[in-house]
Each structure stands twice: as structure tokens, then as C-alpha cells.
Amino acid sequence: MDDKPHRPSCAQRLREDAAVRGEPVQETAHRIHTHCGVTLLRAHRLARGLTLQEAADGLNALGVRYETAPRADGDQLGHWEKGRQPRPATVDLLCEFYATTAQDLGLRGSSQPSSAEASATQERVPARRSPQTTPAVSPRRVADTVPLSFEQQIDAARRSVDRTLAVGTVTPTQLDLLDEQLLWAREQYVYTPPAPMIEILLGHLSEVEDLAAHRQPASVQVRLAELTAMIATLIADALMKLGHLRQSQSWYATARNAADDSGNTELRARVRAQAAMLPYHYGPIEAAVALSREARILCRNRPTATAAFASAAEARALAKLGHAEGAETALRQATEIFERSHARTDTGNDAFAFPERRLLLYMSGTLTALRRTAEARRVQESALALYPEKTGIDPALLHFEAALCLAHEHSTEEACQLAAATFLRTESAHRTPIVEERAREVVEVLPPRVRGSRAARELREILALPPGQM
């Protein structure tokens, strides 16, 4: 064994490889023991993918069948796994729990206990058969004094795997319910302020995480990874709106990891396109181009809503960098893909949808950055007509872009007044740092000589007011 024990992730890889080969769990435990440098007792737990607390809970659940059975907690089990010898009655319980012998667990067997220990053992665990009688092998316990035959080892391994599968299986009904809850949250997200939305999403994530922490069949694990990626993406987006940029970046990274783990190409692209929003709004813009381009490449020009979204996001970021030709090409591609996709018939509310109004929002951002103000204004009017009454900040962003168009046309007073009116009309719970940044951008694009004008000063004063004084 190595001098320094390996991390649990190493044992997890060995366990997954063993599952593919159909290797018995006892054999996997010995492989982990040898390769990872951990005790046999710990190796048996890791071979089953159990945490310390889960193993302790299993021992305690098993022990309720016996009067005055020994109790265990995660800390105590950790001490035993590091070499501390448990009491004989506990050794018996561990043998039954792991369906193996004391020797195989690296523990001293209780075949010759003292009279006091024997009395305690008889109270806690089933009495052993006399050595003169034919030994009967329990499906969940083999006495350490009776060697396992080949057939018994096979049966014990199969039962152990069956138990693992039974414990780890999530029913289709559970998954469907999680899907329904997340769909409801995705619809809520469109119009709910980010702060309370984060609390709702964290609650859903906790449920998914509880299930994903246990061993699950591959198909179930994929769906749980997809749910994790979608929830993490929405949390990241909400944090971005609130101005918590470091946390938002971290959650986007988590979302990408989960999406990659799911193997769902469409979701991998979608998460990256969405993650491009953070550097688009707060920089560096080059990172927004890179993420949206990566999403577009993942889509491989398939006519999907995500492919249209990725191209539109790339166009908007390129336009903000001043790359007119690239932005126009990407925007043209986004429009063509959108027309070929089913997204053009989507009019519902879903944070992961990309309906026509969202395409027009990105088109507005692209045209505004390219200073094609007349075209941008027509797009903004078309987009605003498509938004329902109950919605989020998208209409406000469109009005801010209309104000930017006015600023580009040197209509300073009208630009500042529109930005100020839009900011004040925005519901206070939605008046987050990202909304403030878009309003402040109107002042920043004004020529230096007019930034001290009365209209510009009034806009800055409104933005500087505490929330309760607006």
C-alpha cells in the first residue's frame, strides 16, 4: 500500500470500473485496500459507495433487531476504520452489514470472547450454531469462524449488489416530480425577482443533491446531472443580476461541470451560452465571445433554439467589441437557425426557452452596439410588443438600449430621461445592480462635454438614491 491514503475519488473510479466488469464487491474492496492504502474496513465501505454516516445509519438500522445492540455514529466508525478495534458485538454487526468475515474486514474475530463479552454478544446478536452442527450461512452475515465456499462468496456478492441497487434506485415517479418542480421554477424565474428565486432554487437543488449523493443507475445519474446543471445555471444568472459576480462565476462553472457530466450536448451548449452573459455585462467581452462560440460549435449548426441562442449571443458580444463583420455574420446565422427551429412557435414562459422576443432582444443589443439605431429601434418595438405583462427585466433592458440609441444620435436629454423613467418604473425587487449598470451605461456613452448636463446629472442622482427614497 502507498504511505499516504488516496482520496475517495480514487476509490470511486475503482468502484465504477469494477461495476463495468461485474466484479464482486468483496474483490473491489481488496482492490481499493491495496491500491488506495486504506484499511480493509474502510475499503469495504468505499467499495459500496457509502459515506461514514450512511454506513453508521445502516449499522444502527441492522442493530435494532437485537436487544441492547451497539450504536455507532460516523465519527466512531471513522476511528474503527483508522485501526481502533471495535467491541466483539460490533465486529459481528460489521460482518453482517458487509456480508463478510472479521478477517476480511481486517478485524480480530470474536470467536473466543471472554465470558462477559460472550454474555453481551448473546444479548446483541443472534446466537451462533454449535461447531458440531452444519453451519448455515445467513444471506447478510457469515460467521468469521466459518470459511466461505465459492458458491457462498458468489451469493454474498450478488446480495450485496442487489442491496446497493435497491438503496440507490430512484423511481421514475420521483424523477418526473423533480422535472415538474424544476419546470415550474423555470417558469417562475422569468418574472420572479432574483433574491427570492435563489431560495426556491436552492431548495430544489438540495433534493437533487440528496439523490445524486447515492449510487444510482447510469440513466438516473444522467437525469440528476441535467437537473443540477439547469438549477445551477439559474442560480448563477440570479447572482449575476444581484451583482455577486464571483459567486455567479463559480456557479456557472458548477453548471458547466454538471452539464458535461450528463453528456447532454444540447445542455452543455446551453449552459455555455448562458454563462457568456456574465462577461458580456461585466467583462471581459472576449470571454463572452469564447463561451458563446464554444456553445455554437457544440450545436454543430443543428436547427435548435440553443444554436440560435449561441449565435445571437456571439453576435451581440462581437458587436460590443466593435467587430462589425463578425457580428453581422453571427446575427444572420442566428436568424436563419431560428427560422428553421421549433423555437419560432414558442410563446410560453420558460427561462430555458428562446422565443422570438428573446432573439429580438439579442438582435437589439447587436444593432445598438453597431450604432445601426434605426434598425435597432424597429427591433425594440417589435420585441416589446411580444412580452407578456408579467415578466422580468427584459423590457427594461430594451428601453435602456433605446436610450443608448438616442445617446448615439446625440439626443442627450431624451436619452437620459428615458433611462431615468425606465429605472424608476422597474419594480424595486428587480432594480438590481445589473439594471443600475445598464442605466449608468447611458451616461457613459455620452460625449464628455455633455456628461455634466442637467439631464445627465439628474440620471446619476436617481441612480445614487437609496432604494427607499425612489
From TrEMBL:
HTH cro/C1-type domain ranges (all copies): 41-105
Region (Disordered): 106-144
Coiled-coil parts of chain: none
Protein name: Helix-turn-helix transcriptional regulator
Comp. bias regions, Polar residues: 109-122
Gene3D superfamilies: Tetratricopeptide repeat domain
Record InterPro entries: Cro/C1-type_HTH, TPR-like_helical_dom_sf
Organism listed in the record: Streptomyces fragilis
